[in-house]
Amino acid sequence: MKVLVVGGGGREHAICWKLAQSPKVTELYCAPGNGGIAQVATCVPIKATDVDAMVAWAKENAMDFVMVAPDDPLALGMVDALEAAGIPAFGPHANAAIIEASKAFSKELMKKYHIPTAKYETFTEMDKALAYIDEQGAPIVVKADGLALGKGVVVASTVDEAKTAVREMMEDHKFGQSGSTVVIEECMVGPEVTVLAFCDGEHLVPMLSSQDHKRAYDGNLGPNTGGMGAFCPSPKYTPEIAKECMEKIFLPTVAALKAEGRPFKGVIYFGLMLTKDGPKVVEYNARFGDPETQPLLSMLDSDLMDIFEACVNGTLDQVEVKWKDGAACCIVLASGGYPVKYQSGYPISGLEEAGKSATVFHAGTKRQEDGTIVTAGGRVLGVTALGADLNEAISNAYAACAPISFQDMHMRKDIGKV
Q: Which has the closest alpha carbon to 244: 185, 195, 288?
């Protein structure tokens, strides 16, 4: 099969790395790809959000299957367009991807179908949003309704902080049109866990539980990022909690989307809070998380192409999804100053040495004509290692980071420990 993966980050490198292991995949392409992806797939210089160009290229080059990984092209209807062109594609249609593209929609869906989540209100007028914050007090959570690169959520510890977040979203247009509507919700308390699940529109198979670390600095301090590291499975996600989530959250969500005429095929990301009142949904995403994908696919012991085809064909119940024993941990190596302001173009050394004991997934890198790999983004690399247990996986991942170096390199030292 000739397979195209859409995207160019660490998540897409992990997906390409895993698909390259499938005997079904004879030719692998990635658009736009990056310096690391180029080692396992042929990179095609098309922007991930350019739906027309992507579909045209897939048709001209007779792709047998396309995997659309990022949120933006899913929300723009790339899967719909590929299918209309006769090309099987993995990922939800635009009308199902709305569970991520609109937080207001997903909250209304949960309310309608009694799926546990935080109490909330939705606002299109700034004055009413500010008045609601005064009425509710803090801590409180402010969310931009639309897509914001994983950065459109502010957990405000004071009323002033919450009001500033609202003004930045609604008045200053910090996230463009994504912040013209805001969702303001109660601040839930408890451990956070992520569960990604394969879905074929009717059947659902959860992956291992995982946990991402969003804040830029140790101790969960600093601004929100796209993710500074992740591990799986989470020790806090017990079999009892998994059973409750399946019965009260996962299956009801799939059934709700189907009932609304929006059957979901692809990967649903369940961001969960394990509160004293039981697990509740923090957010849905309509795709693989990044960096959770890196440790998760490192632990997958099944053919990923088989699973992708089953999701598209509605036969997920006929595929065995198997996982390795032990645990995995991914440490993100970022450019200094990320997620605010940073420089790129610095040479990276030590990749070969690190690759002897871990898998180094490239997120923001570029391969120069002379073969040198240089930094080309905020999150640069995701160093991912396995272990017999979580502590060993964490230790192995940090050990593998040691030989890697580039100017202003930044990483958290407490991934998996807080």
A: 195
CA angle 84, 87, 88 (to 5 degrees): 105
Which residues 6+ apart lie within 8 Å of 86 measured at CB?
59
Q: Domains of the chain (ranges plus CATH)?
A: 2-93 (3.40.50.20), 125-180 (3.30.1490.20), 192-318 (3.30.470.20), 327-410 (3.90.600.10)
The alpha-carbon radius of gyration of the chain (Å, integer) is 20
Contact indicator for 299, 329 with CB cutoff of 8 Å:
no
HSE-CB at 217 with a 13 A cutoff on CA atoms is 6
SS3 label, residue 134: helix
**Both tokens of residue 136?**
């509710």
pLDDT tens figures, 116-172 = 999 999 999 999 999 999 999 999 999 999 888 767 888 899 999 999 999 999 999
Distance CA 22, CA 27 (A): 11
Place 177 in a pLDDT band, splitting at 50, 70 and 90.
Answer: confident
What is the Cα–Cα distance from 282 to 3, expressed in whole angstroms? 33
pLDDT (tens digit, 9 = 90+) per residue, 322-343?
Answer: 999 999 999 999 999 999 999 9
Could you tell me the pTM of the whole model?
Answer: 0.94
Q: Rounded to whole angstroms, what are the CA distances from 303 to 23, 24, 37, 113, 206?
A: 9, 9, 19, 34, 16
Q: Decide: 305 and 90 in contact? Cβ < 8 Å.
A: no
Instruction: Please list, residue by residue across 59-86, b when 16 or more beta carbons sit within 10 angstroms of its beta carbon and e when fewer do.
Output: eeeebebbbbbbbbbbbbbbbbbbbeee
Rounded Cα–Cα distance for residues 81 and 83 (Å): 5
Tokens linked to 261: 């005429």
Collapsed DSSP state (helix, strand, coil) of residue 165: helix
Q: What is the pLDDT of residues 284-320, one digit of tens each?
A: 999 999 999 999 999 999 999 999 999 999 999 999 9
CA distance 23 to 305: 9
